[in-house]
Task: inverse folding
């Protein structure tokens, strides 16, 4: 059953030289699915995620959530950010509590939920700590707690591990997968943007490969490696899929080395 | 190929629009001058181009001197340990005391030294301009050099870049943006203080230097011609905007988008953390903020931590300096009797009242400024349409030399409120008009630099209106509000000296206060000992408020918000 459908989405940023970020992008995300979008930097994958989150507009096309078109932020779709997006002037607890209160949950109730979710991500002892005094991994845990506390159906992740060191990232990846499969949490559709192909293959059911700007979906790769994948990261199949996706990206880049493409809009 | 073509096309177009602006602006100004000279009926009006030239030359010369000395002392302070230990705290104290208060002392000195010759006046004027221009450039240079990211310094070391090569390829490019923003500020301050510098009343006698500022003062005070004063004010504003457009805006754009930006972008925060004693710019560049100067401006929060030794040395040097100025102005060290005689005058009994009046005036002006700046800043942050109207007004508004407003303001306000109250309202209006810009600038900058992710989070959560203001905008701009308050309060002390004591026509209008007491002591009575005493009191007050209130507030405000920046 599909939860989210992106239909013929196009997006351009106006300016002296308008930048076409996305060109006719379509895909579906099923219930319980973990979908990952990879592509060279500047291909519009983060823009795509922001459009789904409702914090960026579109030029044409539509987003269907449970078959109904949506525009603007939706409380059933939340997001975690590459640089965590925590408010520095609020404690971990206040950061998690804020969206709940904004959505009309009374103070005491919001507090209880926030404490519960901070506990779930292992930050029970750091409720009253300010982001400044938390490590990167802990900050992202607060970000995850804040997103999950809203009990969303879809969790969007914008390169959530790329500003963390590899050890922390690897721990958090497994924890995100645990959250995804946790029967007690209503959040079971994950949409993640990444430029790390192994990470995508390790986590996702399906990997969408995007071309350089203007971003298009060039390939939809099904990852049929059994879970838990920790046990299969040394399988030849794992490497084959990673290698295949890298080849697709290189082909989409037109033979240019990834990283040598024109970056930015200047 | 296509890319190459576009790259070279863009500057060409920019050059062309720039040249176009230059010619059109020059023609417009010529036209304005011809129009004014041919229509205005005033015996001196044909001297207008000459006055313009004199003022321009005076400010330019002083600016060049400021630039050279600031560069010299700045590099010295930033690269040598002893230099940093002596110069930075010294300059910091010097720039936070109301420098205009020392102006009467300087006038007394120069007029007596040159026996009233014009060169003495010219030097006094240039000294006043210099003291308003120097600090911004100096602290800009020091801040920029100290904030060169460690990785760039290490890279330079690994390529064995030393001596001249190091200065040429690392230091100079790094300080160019700071030089430009500091220069913008200095240049603006120069025009701001021009009127005070060119038209001096001392010992019941008026000394004036040829120039736009003195002409404006004469138009208002001697000819009593408000229309001419307004016309001159408009001319000065047009000139300031035109020159800003020609030079600083262009340079700012270039430095902001060109070679130097990456240096300031790379690991800025790490650079900050790595250097504990960062002497940040005390003044905030008054450049317009859309030019990508984010980091230079953000470096303004004064996070300097002094060692006890540095503080001690600075205090000793400042006291010595004050002593020097006062004693040189009145040859020979005054005897105890002389001091007694000078200080024990009947008006001394009013000192507490004067101090309270001035403090009240400043506080009222500060809160008016704060509430206007806050509401405008927040509106500009929340409503795009409002920002579009607000920023150009803001740009022009901050170019108006406020001291020149006094006669015009007083004439109209005294008609509404009556004499005494009119004067009080005029004084307050001038204070607000001066104090508000630092608050505006800081708030507007902070609003513009709220990180994208924070904005996105608030959007995603679905916060609106008051909720956004309370949870996102206000906390994000709080450190900037405190920094702005600090600067606006400091500049208020400067303006109070002028806004409480104003020559108007043949008489002098004054309000009871520290500022007017000081002016009277110096300019009417020539009582240098009293002047020195009042200066000490004022300086102590300024520094006390700065250390006790603003710095401790700043530390609190920055504790949690440091990460946003």
Result:
């Amino acid at each position: 059953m599909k939860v989210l459908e992106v239909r013929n989405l196009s997006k351009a940023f106006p300016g002296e030289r308008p930048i076409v970020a996305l060109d006719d992008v379509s895909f579906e995300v099923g219930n319980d699915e973990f979908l990952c979008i990879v592509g060279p930097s500047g291909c519009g994958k983060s823009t795509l995620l922001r459009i789904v989150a409702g914090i960026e507009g579109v030029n044409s096309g539509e987003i269907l959530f449970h078959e109904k078109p949506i525009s603007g932020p939706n409380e059933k779709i939340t997001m975690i950010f590459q640089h965590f997006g925590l408010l520095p002037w609020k404690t971990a607890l206040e950061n998690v509590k804020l969206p709940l209160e904004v959505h009309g949950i009374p103070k005491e109730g919001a507090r209880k939920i926030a404490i519960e979710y901070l506990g779930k991500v292992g930050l029970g002892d750091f409720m009253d700590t300010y982001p400044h005094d938390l490590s990167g991994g802990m900050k992202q845990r607060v970000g995850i707690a804040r997103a999950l506390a809203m009990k969303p159906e879809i969790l969007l992740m914008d390169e959530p591990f790329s500003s963390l060191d590899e050890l922390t990232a690897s721990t958090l990846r497994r924890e995100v997968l645990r959250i995804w499969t946790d029967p007690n949490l209503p959040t079971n559709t994950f949409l993640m943007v990444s430029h790390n192909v192994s990470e995508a293959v390790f986590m996702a059911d399906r990997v969408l490969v995007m071309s350089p700007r203007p971003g298009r979906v060039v390939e939809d790769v099904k990852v049929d490696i059994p879970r838990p994948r920790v046990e299969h990261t040394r399988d030849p199949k794992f490497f084959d899929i990673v290698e295949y996706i890298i080849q697709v990206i290189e082909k989409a880049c037109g033979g240019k080395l990834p990283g040598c493409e024109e970056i930015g809009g200047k | 190929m296509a890319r190459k073509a576009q790259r070279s096309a863009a500057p060409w177009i920019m050059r062309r629009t720039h040249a176009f602006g230059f010619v059109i602006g020059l023609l417009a100004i010529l036209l304005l001058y011809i129009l004014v000279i041919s229509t205005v009926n005033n015996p001196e009006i044909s001297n207008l181009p000459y006055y313009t030239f004199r003022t321009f030359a005076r400010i330019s010369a002083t600016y060049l001197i400021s630039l050279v000395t600031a560069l010299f002392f700045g590099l010295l302070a930033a690269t040598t340990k002893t230099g940093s230990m002596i110069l930075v705290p010294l300059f910091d104290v010097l720039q936070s005391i109301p420098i205009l208060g020392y102006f009467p002392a300087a006038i007394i000195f120069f007029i007596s030294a040159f026996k009233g010759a014009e060169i003495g006046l010219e030097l006094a004027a240039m000294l006043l301009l210099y003291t308003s221009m120097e600090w911004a450039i100096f602290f800009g240079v020091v801040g920029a050099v100290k904030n060169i990211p460690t990785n760039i310094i290490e890279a330079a070391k690994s390529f064995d870049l030393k001596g001249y090569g190091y200065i040429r390829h690392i230091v100079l490019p790094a300080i160019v943006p700071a030089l430009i923003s500091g220069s913008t500020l200095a240049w603006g301050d120069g025009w701001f203080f021009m009127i005070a510098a060119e038209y001096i009343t001392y010992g019941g006698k008026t000394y004036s230097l040829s120039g736009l500022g003195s002409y404006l003062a004469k138009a208002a005070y001697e000819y009593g011609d408000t229309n001419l004063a307004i016309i001159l004010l408009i001319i000065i504003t047009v000139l300031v905007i035109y020159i800003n457009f020609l030079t600083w805006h262009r340079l700012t754009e270039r430095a902001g988008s060109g070679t130097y930006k990456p240096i300031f972008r790379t690991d800025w925060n790490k650079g900050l953390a790595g250097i504990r004693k960062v002497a940040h710019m005390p003044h905030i560049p008054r450049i317009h903020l859309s030019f990508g100067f984010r980091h230079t401006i953000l470096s303004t929060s004064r996070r300097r931590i002094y060692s006890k030794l540095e503080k001690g040395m600075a205090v000793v040097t400042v006291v010595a300096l004050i002593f020097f100025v006062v004693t040189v102005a009145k040859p020979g060290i005054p005897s105890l009797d002389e001091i007694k005689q000078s200080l024990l005058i009947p008006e001394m009994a009013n000192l507490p009242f004067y101090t309270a009046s001035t403090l009240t005036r400043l506080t009222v002006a500060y809160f008016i400024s704060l509430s206007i700046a806050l509401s405008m800043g927040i509106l500009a942050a929340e409503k795009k349409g409002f920002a579009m109207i607000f920023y150009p007004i803001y740009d022009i508004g901050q170019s108006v030399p406020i001291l020149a407003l006094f006669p015009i303001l007083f004439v109209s306000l005294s008609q509404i409120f009556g004499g005494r109250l009119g004067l009080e309202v005029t004084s307050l209006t001038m204070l607000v008009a001066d104090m508000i810009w630092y608050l505006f600038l800081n708030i507007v900058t902070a609003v513009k630099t709220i990180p994208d992710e924070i904005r996105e989070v608030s959007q995603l959560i679905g916060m609106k209106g008051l909720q956004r203001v309370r949870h996102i905008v206000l906390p994000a701009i709080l450190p900037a509000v405190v920094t702005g308050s600090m600067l606006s309060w400091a500049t208020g002390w400067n303006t109070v000296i002028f806004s409480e004591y104003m020559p108007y026509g043949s008489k002098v209008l004054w309000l009871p206060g520290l500022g007017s007491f000081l002016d009277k002591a110096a300019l009417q009575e020539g009582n240098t000992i009293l002047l020195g005493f009042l200066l000490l009191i004022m300086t102590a007050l300024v520094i006390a408020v700065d250390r006790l209130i603003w710095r401790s507030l700043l530390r609190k405000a920055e504790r949690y918000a440091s990460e946003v920046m």
